[in-house]
């Protein structure tokens, strides 16, 4: 029995223990965007530091101006080194009444189709994914007494809230953190049976705008139509972001967005993706974006502009005839290829200002930004990881794009000069960021096994 | 000393008592739109019934499917009879953090300019106004042992929440409630020194729309641009309600809206109204409505369409990259002349449906409706009331319009066949429906005196 086979057997034997540890983390309410949960975030970081020390890492939760960052080293092996990144923070849970159970009381449930899933906030994004990696390390240590490669683990607590403190932390600790390859677990498989490595990621530009009108809420009977209504101004501003063809109207928005290379378009064409299936899962059927482009191209290689939140005036039960003093919206742009987040932010702000009545005012709040990224999938580390994944899942792993943004990927590239293998075991129907988030039990178990294989492969 | 002079002297003597009673009502949290305050509404109705019995009325709080309606009779006098209407319910108080003090802990404050004001939710809308009428009755009874005319007082508890139960109540009790003239207190003076009788009132059509997209909240990275975003659909629907000239685009919206009669336009032109002053009070300067029309015409005799509330997606602190499953808006139309609320509601719903993607759905909630109204100001009761007001304030009272809607006015006309004298002592800067609502102490005291005079005048 090879070393790897013994590690894989150990993983299968210890599944109950692995689940117990995952549940312990899932019970911690590490909602990073809400200051009320700062203590929970700190406790979560401390939990990981202690767990990693128990495995044999030199680990600590390090304080930042925001939530702590966990750093753990085990560099006893020789050979090419790796830096693994995950995040322990989770999205808010509202609307809470749409959850079938307490988001922080995890459980393994069997779905109607027989699939076993781990239910709870963070199960897929990203606690289940990062614990899959940690469990792989634990198994290697248990069986062989050491890791196959020199390894550093970095766990962030602000991925869901803008991640403002990570760039400075990376810059300040370059020598300590730099490795030959980056490993990130925050991505999906192609489908439930096909593993994937993401080599193209969209960037992100997050922006909030608050339109201020009168210096108080007004009665719409006395002031209706005569006084500026921030709701109306905001609706007009937001509607004008799109033209009739579903294209974003900001000047220069599509600068640096080439048509998809023919070869890649061809490869993606073989994936059997259909808009009907993609949208059907969530109860939709009509692709909503740019007319004439297919949905896969849209979410992997075209930029987006989405209104993630908007609100103004009375939203409670019943009716209130008010003209609100302000209205606001949170907007995110997903970026591709060479789009510049800063130019797009400026174009958006100019778009708003151009549509403001003279007696109204706009306030802007920046919510993070990162460029799109693309890795050279011909690098040997990518080939090794691909083979390891293909061995575990019995099916060739594919190189794909991802509509989501993982800003840290870009940071690892720019701050530490590292390429990154993005391999995760999430699925499209995991409901991340939504009520009833889940992570398939198979994703967790075969995820652990996959990472164990990748760690072994990278040492060769 | 005439009977009236003795009544007025009694009013001035009893101001401390009158304030004490008003404060007792202002302390009751009678927010009718929020079911959590149903008990407070019932308590408020009971308070009035008991107070009116103490004055000598035959009074009771009568139950309805919603909040109780208080009815009180004192028909010992002879001569033409009157039905007085007021409402004891108040608007919600959010946003609470914009109040300088507890909305339900009333106080008399002296403003920077020396004006004394009664501060608290409902002080102007409508508790201060209705108690001014009740105190006038109390003074007549105290001095003469009876009221000058046969009188019924009706106090509603659902004026701020759609008033769905009042029409049925009026219809069911026509014989008991019918009188020669209606008296309503829920209006403003022209300015702080000029009393006014409102003879033109805008109607109202309140509507809520909820746009449903995917069957769950989605991650905007994975689904961005490809999946329908209810926020985006709603923004487009709302923006399309207005054209570049500030006119409402619903087909047929302006049917039954004539140009203002020349004589009325001329009379209004003498009032010294300016948009600068009107909007300046609330920190604005640019009239926002139909281009080419002045602001007074806009709020008194032109229809309006206002987005009173809208919301969808994540509105908390920080950022959440979600595509929400739904977004909603509350919209009110203020109606003039012969506009039909039902046709306008249907036109709005058609406007929404025409802009819905095939895989999305709209849900509609009706929030009350009432036509615009105009009284024949040549009627003798109007002349008597006008003279009484002019005597009290030492300045001729004016006949004006009002942008606000008082649906009960239309109900009294249609259900009971009554004309209504609308005389109130509110001011434009009372912040009704807003934080820090107030009612001038002068409005309260001279309001009581004015009603005492009107009651006397109507008996002659």
Automatic annotation (TrEMBL), chains A, B:
InterPro entries found in the cross-reference section: Cyt/Met_Dipeptidase (IPR051458), Peptidase_M20 (IPR002933), Peptidase_M20_dimer (IPR011650)
Endpoints of the signal sequence: none
Peptidase M20 dimerisation domain span: 201-359
Keyword Transcription found: no
Record keyword Metal-binding present: yes
Coiled coil regions in record: none
Record keywords, A-Z: Hydrolase, Metal-binding, Protease
NCBIfam families, per database record: PRK09104.1
PANTHER family named in the record: BETA-ALA-HIS DIPEPTIDASE (PTHR43270), SUCCINYL-DIAMINOPIMELATE DESUCCINYLASE (PTHR43270:SF12)
Name the UniProt record assigns to this protein: M20/M25/M40 family metallo-hydrolase
Organism: Falsiroseomonas frigidaquae
């Amino acid at each position: 029995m090879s070393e790897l086979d013994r590690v894989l057997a150990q993983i299968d034997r210890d599944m109950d223990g692995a689940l117990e540890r995952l549940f312990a983390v899932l019970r911690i309410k590490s909602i990073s965007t809400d200051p009320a949960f700062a203590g929970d975030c700190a406790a979560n970081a401390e939990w990981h530091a202690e767990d990693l020390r128990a495995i044999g890492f030199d680990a600590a939760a390090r304080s930042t101006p925001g939530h702590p960052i966990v750093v753990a080293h085990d560099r006893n092996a020789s050979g090419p080194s790796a830096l693994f990144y995950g995040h322990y923070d989770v999205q808010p849970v509202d609307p809470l009444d749409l959850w079938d159970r307490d988001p922080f009381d995890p459980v393994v449930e069997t779905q109607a189709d027989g699939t076993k899933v781990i239910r709870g906030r963070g199960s897929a994004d990203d606690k289940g994914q990062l614990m899959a990696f940690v469990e792989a390390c634990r198994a290697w240590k248990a069986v062989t007494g050491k890791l196959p490669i020199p390894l550093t683990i970095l766990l962030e607590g602000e991925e869901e809230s803008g991640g403002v403190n990570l760039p400075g932390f990376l810059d300040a600790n370059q020598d300590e953190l730099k490795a030959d390859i980056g490993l990130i677990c925050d991505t999906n498989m192609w489908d439930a049976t096909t593993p994937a490595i993401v080599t193209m990621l969209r960037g992100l530009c997050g922006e909030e705008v608050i339109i201020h009108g009168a210096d108080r809420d007004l009665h719409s009977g006395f002031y209706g139509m005569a006084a500026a209504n921030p709701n109306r101004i905001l609706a007009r501003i937001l509607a004008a972001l799109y033209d009739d063809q579903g294209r974003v109207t900001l000047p220069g928005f599509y600068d640096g967005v080439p048509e998809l290379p023919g070869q890649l378009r061809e490869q993606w064409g073989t994936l059997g993706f259909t808009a009907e299936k993609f949208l059907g899962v969530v109860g939709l059927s009509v692709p909503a974006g740019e007319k004439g482009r297919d949905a896969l191209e849209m979410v992997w290689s075209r930029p987006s502009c989405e209104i993630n939140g908007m609100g103004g005036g009375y939203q409670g039960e019943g009716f209130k005839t008010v003209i609100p003093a302000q209205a606001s919206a949170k907007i995110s742009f997903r970026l591709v290829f060479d789009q510049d987040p800063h130019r797009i932010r400026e174009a958006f702000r100019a778009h708003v200002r151009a549509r403001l009545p003279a007696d109204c005012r706009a306030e802007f709040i920046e919510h993070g930004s990162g460029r799109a990224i693309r890795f050279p999938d011909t690098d040997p580390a990518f080939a090794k990881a691909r083979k390891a994944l293909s061995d575990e899942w019995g099916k060739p792993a594919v190189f794909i794009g991802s509509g989501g943004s993982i800003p840290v990927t870009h940071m690892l590239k720019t701050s530490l000069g590292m390429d990154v293998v993005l391999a995760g075991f999430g699925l499209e129907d995991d409901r991340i960021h939504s009520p009833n988030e889940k992570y398939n039990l198979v994703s967790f178990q075969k995820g652990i096994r996959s990472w164990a294989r990748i760690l072994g492969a990278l040492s060769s």
